[in-house]
Amino acid sequence: MSGIGILDRHVALFSGSLRTVLRRESDRRRCADSPYAWLFQPYMGDELVALACYETPMASSSVISVAAVVLSQQQVRTSRAFVATLGRADQPDSASLRRHHMLCQAGEVTDPSSDSLSALVEFIGNRPIVGWQLTQRIGALNTLLRQRLSFALPNAQVDVAKLHQRQLRRLRPVLEAPNTFAQALACWQVPTIGGQSVLGEATSSALLYMRLQRIMAEQHSDE
Questions:
Q1: How many CB atoms lie within 10 A of CB 47?
Q2: Whole-number Å distance between alpha carbons of 91 and 46
Q3: 3-class DSSP assignment, residue 130
Q4: Which of 8, 149, 175, 178 is the one with CA 20 to 30 A from 188?
Q5: Which terms does the record give in the GO molecular function aspect (predicted)?
Q6: Domain residue limits, the chain
């Protein structure tokens, strides 16, 4: 399935608010003559990127762990992954920071320089992004990107949480959709990969997305 097909199918899920659309257009114009202009071009391929972010507020500044994994309609390419923890490298070794490291398993904290953020956005490219509760999860990351690169992630986005809720309402309209990520994975019999690590969440989000895609395709073929 082409990237265009993916986006057409999920237009109601990633269109976002008018404010978001206008902000992306403003970013696109601002970056028109920059090395990042290609990130705002429509994607014509068949890959996506599953993205997971986890933020821990600290006394001086937040620490953000992020993982991105490439997937297609057939497989999750765990060999193609980006994992980093961004924040002030001189953070005190507090209990909050130790807990963050334990949960995310994303390496030591590195300064969110323009170079490190450029590596992330170039890894993602202009491919659509999928993930659990994307708007909430990537808010802090987008703030960093705006501070250092002058734009937020411009990619089309599919919120797997909304996709899960929509599909469950269609199949079982009298039941309330489970709200947590773990409950959604169990609902669709998707394995939890890598425990609670940020890379594990990105990989499991990709698998959940693929599972829901197969269900949607089966429903479409029956109609």
A1: 16
A2: 40
A3: strand
A4: 8
A5: exonuclease activity
A6: 3-222
What's the alpha-carbon Rg for the chain, to the nearest Å?
A: 18
β-bridge pairing 109-110 and 129-131: unpaired
pTM of the complete model: 0.86
- Confirm if 81 and 70 have CB atoms less than 8 A apart: yes
The partner residues of 131 in beta bridges, in order of sequence, read 159
Give one DSSP letter per residue of 42-93, joined into a string.
Answer: PP-SS-EEEEEEEEE--SSS-EEEEEEEEE-SS-EEEEEEEEEEES-TT---
Question: What 3-state DSSP class applies to 159?
Answer: strand
Long-range (24+ apart) CB contacts under 8 A made by 32-41 are 36/121, 36/149, 36/151, 38/126, 39/121, 39/125, 39/126, 39/154, 39/155, 40/126, 40/154, 41/126
- The residue with tokens 């939890």 is 192
Give tens-digit pLDDT for 160-180: 999 998 888 888 776 676 689
Query: Measured between alpha carbons, how far is 143 from 120 in angstroms, rounded to an integer?
Result: 14
Task: Report the DSSP beta bridge partners of residue 69.
Answer: 50, 81
Q: What share of the chain is helix, strand, coil (3-state, %, to 5)?
A: 50, 15, 35
Domain 3-222 has CATH 2.40.50.100: no
CA distances in angstroms from 218 to 59, 163, 211, listed in the order given: 50, 15, 11
Render pLDDT for 114-157 as a digit per residue (tens, 0 to 9).
899 999 999 999 999 999 999 889 999 999 999 999 999 999 99
Instruction: Indicate the DSSP class of residue 15.
Output: -
CA nearest to 190, candidates 177, 179, 181: 181
